[in-house]
């Protein structure tokens, strides 16, 4: 049996995190969830995400700053930014997933990520 790829979810809403975990599990990913950037950064030494779904509006370190750190630390990680903000305000990422998140939209992005 091959190991499932890891998805990092950084989202401060418990409801959104639960929804993303369910979608990602269904698509064959194990999930490491963090409610803030600091928790995600603390885990960098022990995780290697294939995909990250990142909220921009986070307490503490911003999602925009975390996006830069993820791209530096995990250059092969497919970075999906998800937010209620205007897509034009999203930082550089591999994909945009405006909220509210729709499962079919996430599924399409994950298929793009695993090509």
Itemize the secondary structure elements and their pairings.
Elements: E1 6-10, H1 14-26, E2 30-34, H2 37-43, E3 51-55, H3 63-73, E4 78-82, E5 95-96, H4 103-113
Parallel strand pairs: 1-2, 1-3, 3-4, 4-5
Question: Would you write up a description of this structure?
Answer:
- With 115 residues, this protein is an alpha/beta fold.
- It has a single domain, classed as Rossmann fold, CATH 3.40.50.
- The chain is built from 4 helices and 5 strands.
- Strands 2-1-3-4-5 form a 5-stranded parallel beta sheet, with helices on both faces.
- Helix 3 links the parallel strand 3 (51-55) and strand 4.
- The chain is globular and about 35 Å long.
- The mean pLDDT is 94.
CATH level-two architecture:
3-Layer(aba) Sandwich
How are the strands of the biggest sheet laid out side by side?
Answer: 2-1-3-4-5
**Gap between N and C termini:** 21 Å
Taken from the alpha-carbon principal axes, the silhouette is globular
CATH classification class: Alpha Beta
Q: Count of DSSP helices?
A: 4
- Helix/strand-derived category reads alpha/beta
* Residue share in helix: 25-40%
Report the sheet-strand fraction: 15-25%
- Uncertain residue ranges: none
Major pleated sheet: 5 strands, parallel
Q: How many β-strand stretches?
A: 5
